[in-house]
Amino acid sequence: MGAGHGHDHGHTHAVTTTGQHRKLLVAAIAISGTIFAVQLAGAFITGSLALLADAGHVLADAGGVALALGAALLAARPAKGKRTFGWARAEILAVAINGLILTGMGVYIFTEGIRRLITPSAVQPGGMAVFALIGLVGNLAAVALLYRARDASLNMKGAFLEVATDTVTSLGVLAAAIIIAATGYTRADAIVSILIGLIIVPRAIKLLREATNILLEAAPENLDLQHLRNHITQLDHVLDVHDLHVHTVTSGMPVLSAHVVVEDECFHDGHAPQLLDALQAGIAGHFDVEHSTFQLEPAGHASHEHPTHP
Asked: Which residues of the chain does CATH 1.20.1510.10 include?
């Protein structure tokens, strides 16, 4: 004999945390697209690999932000049919794709920088500085737009880190242009390109790791499973908990399910509904998990289940 109960708060989110900031994302995409076009033209005019690398980095970042926006709009679609959580997971897929794009871009920039370090090419430092300065101003504007919303979701965090890194790389390109103009040391262009590659790759790997953990339904990093288990078992009438699963559907949407073993009298004295309410309130209040599903069962019920989960 068992009882199940769950809150559907997670299904009623009409707009994800990223979607709430879609106007900021649109503005950031517009700025990044302009920077890309300007720096791409500047790379061909000046012969600077650093400008080309920065333009490629901006393009990848603008694509990542566009993915975040598109995923947020998809995530706002209602759950129906076989998609019981709607399109919420699309946000995390966007993060994974963005991470893959950034990884490939970073590796290319790094290897091409090594090649040009061995065989330097002529560049025009004056024009290089002008285009780098344009990129710097644009990136600072994008950083200012996304700063306050940077912790709203995983995608907003990624978008902010992208434009912040673009700002750093623009500073690097500007510094390389000044060095070349002052000393004639054209390898500075290749060195900055290599540094840009080294900046991109670790950040891309971090985004990939976070997205992979969510796609593999790992428990949220900020949630202590043992603490959660102890919290449940300390409730009155609770004897044990098993088949405890916690994972994240998308940013800001953790879900939990568990089988809770309770005293037999709970099923006879009408106490089960009150116990379910206590479980739901405790999980939502202490662990910020609003969507939870519990199966209440008597002590002997576990022997009838397949022993695959703790």
From this structure: 11-215
Spell out the residues 6+ positions from residue 245 whose beta carbon is closer than 8 angstroms to its own: 217, 256, 257, 258, 309
pLDDT digits (tens, 9 = 90+) for 260-289: 888 777 777 777 777 887 888 877 766 777
Can you give the pTM of this predicted structure? 0.65
* Residues 120-141: tens digit of each pLDDT: 888 899 999 999 999 999 989 9
Q: Is residue 146 within a helix (H) or strand (E), and if so which, with residue range?
A: helix 125-146
CATH fold of 11-215 reads Alpha-lytic protease prodomain-like (1.20.1510)
Asked whether 293 and 4 are in contact (CB, 8 A), the reply is yes
CB hemisphere CA count around 83 (13 angstroms): 13
Residue 200 phi/psi, 5° resolution?
Answer: -70, -45
Query: In this model, does residue 16 exceed pLDDT 60?
Result: no
List residues bridging with 294 in a β-sheet.
5, 258
Give percent of the chain above pLDDT 70.
78
Q: What is the DSSP string of 194-259?
A: HHHHHHHHHHHHHHHHHHHHHHTTPPPTT--HHHHHHHHHTSTTEEEEEEEEEEEEETTEEEEEEE
| CATH of the structural domain 219-304, one choice from 1.20.1260.10, 2.60.120.1680, 3.30.70.1350, 3.30.70.20 | 3.30.70.1350
